[in-house]
Amino acid sequence: MYLKNVVVLEFTGIDLLDDSRLRDLIEVARKLKVLSLKSCHSIMTTPVFSGCPTLERLTFEDCSILNRIDVSIGKLQCLIDLKIDRCCCLKDLPEEIGDLINLEHFFVQRCKVKKLPDSIWKLKSLRELYFSSRFLALTSTDLWELPSAIGRFQNLEVLLVNSPNLKGQLPSGIGYLPLLRILNLSKTQISELPKTISMLPRLQVLELMACHDIQELPVLPTSLTHLRVSSASLRKIPNLSNLNNLVRLDLIIVDEVDWEFIQTD
After folding, report:
1. Cross-referenced InterPro entries, in alphabetical order (predicted)?
2. CA 16/CA 22 separation, integer angstroms
3. Distance (Å, rounded) from C-alpha 17 to C-alpha 74?
4. pLDDT value at residue 238
């Protein structure tokens, strides 16, 4: 197969494509810009990426035995889009992901990855960060918090973290993200939102479904159009009369005996 000038490689449902065959392809296709592997159930580890420095988009979707991302992924300085979805054997991400200085879109969903790598907070080019995990904490060391460094993400528009192991207070730096439109922290152990959240000038969607440690909400930005909250601990709701742009409001107060559901469309 002559791949010297190939810029897009997309494989779907190719079980004959194993680690060694993929490695051979990558070594030849040195001008590659897009690599997409979907339902390739013989891939256990990613190839060494140093041979494809021009790669811009990388996708691993429904690769059922994929369990390791090679550390050379950090050498992909042109990478803009990284998507990992339904790779149920993948439990860790390499810290070298933090070297992807041009990464704008980062999706890790429906995997067993324990947490985001600490280095992710160096990626100042990020516009969209989606992270949902099926990993349940075995010990307290598996719990994690969003760092104060999140305030450096000046280009961030979407922050979605749905991990049952995310805990604690949302850092005040979240209020200094001028472009943030969507904030979704559903199914987490987040316990408190900072007052600075009212300073977000473009926030339209705030979702805190199944956040059972949240007891009250601060004053919210007037830009909100969608607010969805459910909690077993919610005791205090702010005055929402300032939310003139609100088109959907879901407040679910969960009780051990029954549910109280207030919905406005």
Report:
1. LRR_dom_sf
2. 10
3. 24
4. 78
